[in-house]
Amino acid sequence: MGALADKANDLIGRSRAEFQCNQVINQIFFDKKDAGKLAKDYLSWGVETSLPAEGVVVVGKDGAHVGVFVNENEFVHSSTRQFQVIKVGKDQLPWVFPQGWVYRKER
Q: Most buried among 24, 49, 74, 80, using CB within 10 Å?
């Protein structure tokens, strides 16, 4: 597991009140949760990729939600249902992103 996955895993269990979905990603990539990026900003961040892997951002096509993969099968996001940062399998993508999703990675 790499540094990005370690940062993501360190946020698991934190309250959604403390870390909204975009703030999780901001903290992982920029070491500052209030780095200024909203979930929709990640639709144009980096480059699109076809496969999940550690550090790949998954963002809803509607720009309303964002998460990050810690490995090829699991991603971390701030859950609106559980009201905390959680790690789930990629089989949960259709429920987390009902309008569809895209994968983005750093250039």
A: 24
> What are 31-35's contacts with CB under 8 Å, separation 24+?
none
Q: In CATH, what is the architecture of 3-105? A: Alpha-Beta Complex (3.90)
Residues 6+ apart with CB under 8 A from 80: 16
Nearest partner of 67 among 29, 31, 17, 15, judged by Cα: 29
Q: Within a 10 A sphere around the Cβ of 6, how many other Cβ atoms?
A: 11
Q: Give the residue from 44, 54, 62 showing the smallest Cα distance to 87.
A: 54
CB 19 within 8 A of CB 13: no
pTM of the model: 0.94
Percent helix, strand and coil across the chain, each to the nearest 5: 30, 25, 45
